[in-house]
Specification:
There is one protein chain. With 398 residues, the protein is of the alpha+beta class. 36% of the residues lie in helices and 25% in strands. The protein has 12 helices and 13 strands. Strands 1, 2, 3, 4, 5, 6, 7, 8, 9, 10, 11, 12 and 13 form a 13-stranded mixed sheet that branches. The longest helix has 19 residues.
């Protein structure tokens, strides 16, 4: 698996894992005191609150870097103000124990149906709220009660991209059953995930046939014949500005650049990417991989580290070398996540059925988008009628 005799990552050279920062847990004994508070962008950026927010991220029963300060604040600055996004903060005895960004939309899949929804922008890939361990059910009860009281024009609450089978998702199911609250599934998708006790070498052997592994070795050899092939793994802020520029240029040189969907295609996404990477690096949450040919990147990958998970945030490769599969060759080195201390799984953040990553990562992470009844009996009856119509329409043959 070694690409051009690349050095082992620090955790594979025997260095002890860095100790986790101290936590400020929410006391489960204070559950009954929980309340939802609405926060604007100014309140979120206040240093005292940000400290609690970062503590919550470390204490969260399910990690989600996309709702952490380093990622959510730059997104809110660029896209949240015009959309009037508000953040629902769940406090217990003065301690922040839950956080979820929400926006109210007037339309639902093109129809004039007002609703409230968890907020995700185009470069955020998981919608699970940040909730402190032991407070999952209390958080959902408080949030749903909040929308019952202040539904305003919203007919229902939409919860996008919640992973199934984790503590936060299971708590939602328990609360819905407890309250007899109607819910429909708007969408369910499964994307590639890495979760195994195997070593990287054993995992590769289990994932790919001997013939396919031989083909990868051949592609690696052919790519190396075109120049000096090297692999790098960086953490922290080392060479971050240059690395970011190289990534943006590499992505823009391919089909995304031609389609106008590359990060560099718009000032907002370009600066957001740079700011999010800088914030992740400052907090020790960023891992960067690159495969280089004569010093020039032919494949790059940015992982966000949120223990016990890792998230493959963005990847790009040089399409001029597509016949050598540089992106897949880089993913062979990314299997080192299997041996990284504190990491139990990795989310590919890729679309379902992704042709490259699903050749290698064999596990799946299923994410569900829910529509949930809120308000009083009349509103819930109208919601039930709308969902029944939607289900009939969805099943109708095309």
């Amino acid at each position: 698996m070694d690409l051009a005799n690349a050095p082992k990552p620090s955790w594979r050279r025997g260095r002890a894992a860095a100790p986790a920062p101290p936590r400020a847990p929410c006391a489960p004994s204070q559950l009954e005191a929980g309340r939802i508070v609405l926060l604007d962008a100014e309140a979120l950026a206040e240093p005292g609150f940000r400290g609690q927010w970062e503590s919550l991220a470390r204490e969260a029963s399910v990690p989600n870097p996309f709702f952490e300060p380093f990622f959510l604040l730059p997104g809110l600055e660029r896209w949240g103000r015009d959309a009037r996004v508000t953040v629902k903060a769940y406090f217990v005895g003065g301690q922040l124990c839950g956080l979820y960004p929400v926006v109210r939309w007037r339309r639902y899949y093109g129809y004039p149906v007002a609703h409230a929804t968890g907020w995700l922008h185009a470069n955020a890939f998981c919608g699970t709220p940040l909730v402190a361990r032991g407070h999952e059910e209390a958080f959902w009860r408080a949030l749903l009660a909040h929308f019952d009281r202040s539904a305003r024009r919203a007919l229902f609450l939409h919860l996008p991209q919640l992973p199934e089978g984790d503590a936060v998702g299971d708590a939602l199911e328990a609360v819905l059953a407890e309250q007899g609250r109607m819910r429909t599934v708007a969408r369910r998708e499964s994307r590639a995930m890495l979760a195994s006790e195997l070593s990287p070498e054993a995992y590769l052997e289990a994932s790919m046939s001997a013939k396919k592994r031989k083909e990868l070795r051949r592609q690696h050899k052919r790519l190396g014949e075109e120049g000096a092939l090297t692999f790098e793994r960086l953490e922290g802020e080392a060479r971050l500005v240059q690395w970011t520029r190289e990534f943006l240029a590499l992505e823009a040189a391919g089909w995304k650049g031609e389609a106008g969907s590359a990060l560099a295609s718009a000032e907002e996404t370009r600066t957001f990417f740079a700011e999010a990477l800088r914030g992740a690096a400052e907090g020790g949450r960023l891992e960067r991989l690159a495969l280089r040919l004569d010093g020039r990147p032919v494949a790059m990958l940015a992982n966000l580290i949120a223990q016990p998970g890792a998230f493959s945030f963005k990847t790009a490769f040089d399409e001029r070398h597509a016949r050598h599969s540089p992106g897949l060759l880089l993913q062979l080195e990314n299997l080192a996540l299997l041996e990284r201390p504190g990491i139990a799984w990795a989310d590919s953040c890729a679309v379902e059925g992704h042709s490259m990553i699903e050749r290698l990562w064999r596990e799946k992470r299923t994410l569900t988008s829910h529509n949930i009844a809120i308000g009083g009996p009349a509103r819930r009856a109208l919601f039930a009628a709308l969902m029944a119509w939607e289900n009939r329409h969805r099943r109708r043959p095309s």
